[in-house]
Amino acid sequence: MYKLLIVEDERLIRQRLVYGIDFTELDCVVIGEARDGKEGSDMIQELSPDIVLTDINMPVMTAFDMLEQTISHTYSTIILSGYNEFSNAQKAIKFGVTEFVVKPFKESDIVEAIQRAKEQVDEQRYLKHLQKSETMEHTAIYNLPKAAFEDPIVGEMIDYVHTHFSKKIIFGDVAKEIGYSPALLHDKFKKETQTTFNDYLNRYRINQSIQMLRKEDKKLYDIACDCGFSEYKYYNKVFKKYVGISTKEFLDKL
User: Fold this and answer.
1) Which of 99, 143, 189, 200 is positioned for an S-S bond with 78, CB 3.0–4.6 A?
2) Where are the domains of the chain?
3) pTM for the whole thing?
4) pLDDT for 30-88, tens place per residue?
5) Three-state SS for 142?
6) Domain 146-253 is classified in which CATH homologous superfamily?
């Protein structure tokens, strides 16, 4: 069961969120409702939700201030924003925002966002498990949306990875597709993400393979191939580099 906190200053929208969605079907329970960011911050610290669904602009304290005040707590965040607030909402990426849902929204938009937020919660839980068992020094799950990046060219590169990760990717082909020199793209990507394109690609592929390992009854070499690795041995080597354990050890812990 996933604990969900709803932070929304407009009463009708808050009630629509609380009572208009079948959270039981989503394996979620609403543990609290907050009318502003200050109440939301207090509830996050008191109730330790798994997922926080919040509006951006609220009285007393905005969502940005609430996220900053509770940055030491681990939870997945879904932001509700108007069209004119969306570019502003991108600033919340640094606080680990999972999803942006633009108003006016449909219930199906919220359901889809919660499903993706649950996946992030699962990843957070597993990473905590690994850290407690001291099997991993550090790993990062890179799964940011294209709109999360200030430089649209970097966003295009991210989008290319998310779309083509299952195929063989050569950086020169990416540059040709986007229409800029490899050197320029390399510098822009490194500047904004603090990592290289190949590192991001490998981390994203490993992240996708983890989702498949959890959800699909496939052979390991098929999963490796589906995630863009031509050889299982190389896939397992990369997996261990980023996750800290082999795929077999990972499966034993599921």
Assistant:
1) 99
2) 2-132, 146-253
3) 0.53
4) 999 999 999 999 999 999 999 999 998 888 898 889 988 998 888 999 998 876 665 56
5) coil
6) Homeodomain-like (1.10.10.60)
